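Incident log, support desk, overnight shift.

02:14 A customer reports that sequence design results differ from what the structure should imply. Their input is reproduced verbatim below. On-call engineer (initials T.W.) acknowledged and began investigating.
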């Protein structure tokens, strides 16, 4: 579709500004937001296209005891971690430059280590920033003093160090860590900075024992990220105006940094810890038998902040950027030679109002005329599972996993947050453009959208007024329960069979929740903590371009 001048002006700027400056490139430059990281034009290769399963023939990268996503036992052991550039062979015979977390410990080298420890352990890491720009590490989902939380007001400058040291207070859970520097989060995370942070507790260890699950073999962390690679195998991150506004969508989906991955499996139960580490893409995950196209039922057992009370049967689940879901997949009734695909089913991304903008994606971002990238909501494959071994396996999924005490609404204060879009200032360069707003505002480093009282229960209502896209809303500092969904779109309503409009994934402790256009989502939060002094935390949309673009706020706990 072609973008006409009227539509462009409607969404991106005042007529005077554009006429005066003479066009789009000047506007882009004036925004100071164009980050070109590659000079080679993006020409995705059809070999990595995620739309056909035949392409899936690269062995999935599994966490070992070193290397990429090596498991780092961080319990009570201080270590040095650097942010730096490295090259990895992502496409065969090509060296891809990535930005990574590097740890060298006891003669082992870890790239984007999977940090693993137990509730109650002490964590101590000294970050040295070897990048040429600011960074911070945010431990997504952890309960931390805000000085440890990677807040952008405490940037770690190029060449500088920062000590992260704290006691792990959270339940057993699949968390992750990624950068959070001011306006640079999207680019740095996209270029490679992200990995898992796995906390064990008694419930988790018990489950793995009952089901004979081994981390790295049958209990697998899987981070899904869509990226665009050029013909030289280099990552392309050139968000045009459209992707700055709607979020950057990549041409290929990688799992654990493997494009088009496959995994050989046995006829038994697997635990999969799925993390959506994409900048903007949401997935509607299903396991499908490749021959019949039939959906394989599975059990949802955990969400962002740990196990649910019991397993919930499912055949599909939405996973938006920042969210985690843990599932048990039972392959016992399959035969050697069977092929199962983990795929994202097509869905309506509800980019309604902005649909006239689709013509803009050709304007210098990504895109290959031969292999058009799958848009948000398009059907695509993620991982191929090949049943290789018939094994004896008699374990049964327990009916109780953990205890979730329901949020106590008594004496709670209600705060409302409206998500909208409107014209806002573009910062230094002046001018104006369409922006995402929370209660009519964009992020300002030294302002607080609200102050909450320590130890008080609150209900936070997020209402997505925009008809243009869903927003995965994330809170730092505290986990929450989803109390209710109102006015959900049909594709959500049909999955909402648990009362108060809730989905199975709404039934545990969360830190990120997708709020669909028109929807109101009510969260219950207890603002109790044991840190010294006032705390400042962030709340934001986890579409990383939205976060960098100011769809974020500070809140203070006093
Ligand atoms: Cu994972 Cu503030 O984000
Ligand atoms: Cu976070
Ligand atoms: Cu958003």
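02:41 Re-run completed on a clean worker. Output:
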């Amino acid at each position: 579709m072609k973008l006409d001048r009227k539509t462009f002006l409607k969404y991106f700027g005042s007529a005077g500004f554009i006429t005066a400056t003479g066009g789009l490139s000047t506007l882009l430059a004036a925004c100071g937001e164009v980050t070109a990281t590659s000079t080679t034009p993006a020409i995705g290769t059809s070999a990595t296209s995620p739309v056909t399963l035949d392409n899936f023939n690269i062995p999935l990268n599994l966490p070992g005891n070193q290397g990429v996503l090596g498991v780092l036992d961080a319990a009570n052991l201080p270590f040095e971690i650097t942010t730096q550039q490295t090259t990895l062979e992502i496409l065969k015979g090509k060296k891809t430059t990535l930005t990574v977390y590097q740890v060298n410990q006891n003669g082992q080298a870890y790239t984007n280590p999977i940090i693993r420890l137990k509730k109650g352990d002490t964590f101590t890491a000294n970050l040295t920033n070897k990048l040429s720009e600011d960074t911070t590490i945010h431990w997504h989902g952890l309960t931390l003093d805000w000085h440890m939380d990677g807040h952008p007001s405490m940037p770690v400058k190029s060449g500088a160090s920062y000590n992260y040291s704290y006691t792990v207070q959270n339940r057993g859970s699949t968390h992750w860590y990624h950068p959070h520097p001011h306006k640079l989060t999207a680019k740095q995370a996209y270029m490679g900075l992200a990995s898992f942070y796995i906390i064990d507790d008694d419930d988790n260890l018990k489950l793995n024992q009952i089901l004979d699950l081994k981390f790295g073999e049958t209990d697998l962390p899987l981070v899904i990220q869509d990226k665009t690679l050029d013909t030289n195998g280099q990552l392309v991150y050139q968000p045009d105006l459209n992707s700055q506004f709607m979020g950057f969508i990549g041409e290929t989906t990688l799992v654990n940094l493997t494009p088009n991955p496959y995994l050989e499996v046995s006829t038994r139960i697997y635990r999969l810890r799925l993390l959506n580490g994409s900048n903007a893409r949401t997935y509607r995950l299903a396991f499908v038998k490749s021959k019949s196209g039939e959906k394989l039922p599975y059990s949802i057992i955990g969400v962002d902040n740990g196990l649910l009370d019991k397993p919930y049967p499912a055949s599909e689940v939405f996973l938006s950027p920042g969210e985690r879901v843990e599932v048990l997949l039972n392959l016992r009734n399959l035969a050697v030679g069977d092929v199962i695909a983990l795929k994202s089913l097509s869905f309506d991304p509800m980019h309604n109002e902005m649909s006239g903008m689709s013509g803009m994606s050709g304007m210098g971002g990504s895109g290959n005329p031969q292999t058009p990238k799958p848009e948000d909501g398009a059907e695509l494959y993620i991982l191929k599972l090949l049943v290789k071994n018939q094994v004896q396996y008699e374990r049964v999924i327990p009916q109780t996993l953990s205890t979730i005490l329901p949020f106590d609404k008594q004496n709670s204060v209600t705060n409302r947050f409206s998500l909208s879009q409107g014209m806002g200032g573009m910062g230094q360069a002046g001018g104006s453009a369409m922006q995402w707003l929370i209660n009519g505002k964009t992020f300002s480093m030294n302002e607080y959208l609200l102050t909450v009282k320590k130890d008080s229960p609150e209900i936070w209502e997020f209402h997505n007024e925009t008809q243009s896209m869903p927003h995965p809303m994330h809170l730092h500092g505290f986990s929450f329960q989803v109390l209710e969904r109102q006015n959900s779109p049909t594709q959500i309503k049909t999955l909402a069979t648990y009362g108060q409009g809730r989905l199975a994934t709404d039934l545990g402790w969360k830190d990120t929740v997708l709020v669909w256009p028109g929807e109101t989502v009510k969260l219950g939060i207890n603002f109790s903590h044991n840190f010294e002094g006032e705390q400042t935390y962030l709340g934001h949309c986890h579409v990383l371009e939205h976060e960098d673009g100011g769809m974020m706020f500070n809140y203070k706990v006093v």
